[in-house]
Design a protein that fits this description.
There is one protein chain. By secondary structure, this protein is an all-alpha fold. It is built from 12 helices and no strands. It has helices at 5-13, 20-29, 37-49, 86-99, 126-141, 147-154, 171-175, 179-203, 227-234, 243-263, 269-277, 279-285. Helix 5 (126-141) crosses helix 8 (179-203) and helix 5 (126-141) packs across helix 10 (243-263).
Length: 292
């Protein structure tokens, strides 16, 4: 959410997204200006994504005190005749639940979520989500750096060695979708478009959700009148930073550099020298391929 130019623009200008689902998510997300994710989670995140106590226990309802009984948000009332056998009662309850469409298992727990913003799926790989996050952040800050170089700097696929290669020298295989550069471009490209789709759905209150959306490209989140100013403020396509990119650079560029250093096993005095000389930025942008 903190990599959402829409939410940033809303916080900066006071304009509200015109889509109800997006406006609700923005209001629920709380203060996204907090630099620390832990700080944001403790104050806001856990109250909108964490579930209430689960599973809730089945309870006996006192008929005489029914007006005072507060029902669960998702529940049904069932009358059980105590003259029936346990086998008969269990059988009847199964039939009632089946008629209600209740087929909840440990793997389908998302269906019964009561959190304000629901997880789209419990089946996801945190490492993949992390890669997608770093690729998206990298692309926001360095929009002209080729995706295959981003993959190299972040070591998305460490066994695919592309550093130092020149696309012009391998153009035949590259344009046929072959060779290490083409493979890295494909892998990182997939990370990038998945991150964009995930961001779009997160803005609408669903995560992690990679469903393709055509609307993402021409969506006007604040309406047609404000859209030109929104585009100018959040442009990510040029080397001259937009206001949005300046915001992200101020908060996250150093973290991105630290991630690159970590992934390339660079530490100690070399880190200080690289940052001081500006070579780390040149390496990150793709201007140079060696920083040792």
């Amino acid at each position: 959410m903190r990599l959402s130019p829409i939410f940033w623009y809303a916080a900066k200008t006071g304009h509200q997204p015109i889509k109800d689902s997006m406006a609700k998510t923005y209001q629920s997300a709380g203060n996204l200006k907090l630099i620390s994710f832990t700080g944001w989670w403790d104050q806001f995140g856990k109250y909108i994504f964490e579930e209430p106590q689960r599973p809730r226990p089945a309870r006996k309802v006192d008929i005489e005190q029914l007006h005072q009984h507060k029902l669960y948000k998702k529940s049904i009332l069932v009358e059980i005749p105590l003259t029936a056998t346990n086998k008969k009662i269990h059988s009847d309850i199964k039939k009632i639940l089946k008629a209600e469409g209740h087929n909840l298992t440990a793997l389908s727990v998302v269906q019964a979520s009561e959190s304000m913003l629901k997880l789209h799926s419990k089946k996801y790989h945190s490492a993949a989500i992390e890669n997608e996050y770093w690729v998206l952040l990298y692309r926001i800050l360095y929009p002209k750096t080729p995706l295959w170089k981003i993959g190299d700097r972040l070591q998305i696929n460490p066994t695919n060695r592309v550093r130092g290669l020149n696309p012009r020298e391998v153009s035949d295989e590259y344009y046929r979708g072959r060779g290490p550069i083409a493979k890295m471009q494909s892998v990182v490209g997939r990370c990038y478009y998945k991150a964009r789709f995930a961001r779009y759905h997160a803005e609408h209150g669903s995560f992690p959700n990679y469903t393709k959306v055509d609307e993402e490209l021409d969506f006007k989140p604040f309406g047609a009148e404000i859209h030109p100013d929104f585009l100018a403020a959040t442009d990510e396509s040029t080397t001259k930073d937009s206001a949005w990119q300046k915001h992200i650079r101020r908060l996250y560029e150093e973290k991105l550099h630290d991630q690159i250093l970590h992934k390339n096993n660079i530490s100690g005095l070399l880190v200080t020298e690289l940052k001081a000389s500006g070579r780390l930025k040149q390496f990150t942008s793709g201007e140079i391929d060696s920083i040792n």
